[in-house]
Amino acid sequence: MKIKLGVIFGGESVEHEVSVISAVQAMESIDEERYDIIPIYISKERIWYTGAMLRDMDVYKNFDDLKRYAKEVVLTKKGDKYYLQSTKGMFRKDVTDIDIAFPIVHGNNVEDGSIQGYLESTGIPYVGSHVLGAALGQDKVLMKQVFESNDIPVVPYTWFYDYEYEENNSSILDKISKLKYPVVVKPATLGSSVGITYVKNDSDIKDAIKEAIKYDNKIVVEKAVSNLVEVNCSVLGNYKHQECSALEEVLSDNELLTYADKYIGGSKGKLKGRMNSSKGMASTSRIIPARIDKKVEEKIKDISTRAFKALNLSGVCRIDFLIDGKTKDVYINEPNTIPGSLAFYLWEPVGKGYKELLSDMINIAIKDYKEKHKKTYSFDTNILSNFNGLKGSKGKLKR
User: Within 123-268, where are the H helices?
Assistant: First the structure.
């Protein structure tokens, strides 16, 4: 009997379209002899839909036309089963049941632990990192603090909230100047290079901060790495076991890899058809394996597994590194807990095809779910059965 796999994607995020590309790619490669694929698309209005047509990239050119055909649904639990139920009509009708969820989402409101928290509270098994790992992996400030506490090298940085900058920008600008230009200004909780600016001098810093504040209330400013070489490594596993992919050297005509480099350049902006013409991160200009010496490669893989464990990640992630090409100093940039294209292109050179990678991710999720349910999370006894109300000393709750 096939496992019913609900692939969740989209959501209210500036990386909405990137999620659609990644999910369509994955659904084209999942082993359909083992899994029944059930697309679950979350619109930018946070409405959930399902329907076979959601596997076709053409659908998303004008989704308003599709709403007549896709079913609007909610996820619910009945007994020991999980169902997608139609929201139309007087009574909710079961559309299909699912056995396990596979979130392929990017950015705020979805990848940051939001979807994971919803699935966790529902109780359904799901692929990928859990709430804490997802949240830490999305916040560039908190992740740096975790890395620093684990002696994982990060570039010099400062951070602040939008209101702090509005109330006293002089002290913040002073901290930035102490990093010494050039610097990189980033929204703290976004990905896909959205809202990021490379700043060469103080005359441009205010505009860069203004751009980042458009997307986030927390901003991080990092010292730019000289002689920059960008290298990425993917990690597959859980807290017990990790394995590393091949390393890629990412190429760009810009000072840093932009949204266009990642998702538009290689495919020339055309998102039509299916996987062969919607390459997502797979379209980025890259060299595999990266042109780095063996010692640096080993260092990157060691840091990758340490960072993966420090954030308590699961499934597959892509960890991005900044290397000073002259000094060979290595800095971790950030993990992508649900990377664009699920970083499948980094596993093919080491003999793991996309279909196998996806199956490995699902198997890890099932094992994690079984391991978790060996632990105690609730008690059969009900302390409220003898509770005498809230009046007087008898009503005091003691812990």
Answer: 131-138, 140-149, 162-167, 169-179, 205-213, 259-263
Q: Is residue 144 part of a domain?
A: yes
- Does one domain contain both 167 and 261? no
> Of the residues 180, 208, 223, which one is the last residue of a structural domain?
223
113-138 mean pLDDT: 96
Task: Kindly list the strands in the beta sheet with 71-78, ordered across the sheet, starting from the edge strand earlier in the chain.
Answer: 94-98, 81-86, 71-78, 48-50, 35-42, 3-10, 100-103
Cis peptide before 156 (omega within 30 of 0): no
Residue 378 within a domain? no
* Backbone phi and psi for residue 284, each to the nearest 5 degrees, phi listed first: -65, 145
Instruction: State the Cα–Cα distance between residues 371 and 314, nearest whole angstrom.
Output: 13
Burial class (CB in 10 A: 0-12, 13-18, 19+), 33: exposed
For residue 194, what are the contacts with CB-CB under 8 A and spacing of at least 6? Answer: 14, 15, 107, 187, 215, 259
336-346, pLDDT tens digit by residue?
999 999 999 99
Q: What is the DSSP string of 319-356?
A: EEEEEETTT--EEEEEEESS-GGGGGGGTGGGT--HHH
Q: Which of 274, 360, 368 is nearest to 34 (CA)?
A: 360
Same domain, 289 and 313: yes
> Per residue in 220-254, pLDDT tens?
999 999 999 999 999 999 999 999 999 999 997 66
Q: Are residues 168 and 33 in the same domain?
A: no
pTM for this predicted structure: 0.87
Instruction: Based on the fold, state whether residues 141 and 286 are members of the same structural domain.
Output: yes
Indicate whether 49 and 187 sit together in one domain.
Answer: no
393, part of any domain: no
pLDDT tens sequence across 39-75: 999 999 999 999 999 999 988 888 777 777 899 999 9
Give the range of the structural domain holding residue 365, as residue numbers without chain letter. 137-153+226-372
* CATH number of the domain enclosing 217: 3.30.1490.20
3-state secondary structure of 113: coil
Looking at the structure of the chain, the number of domains it has is 3
Contact between 301 and 244 under an 8 Å Cβ cutoff? The reply is yes
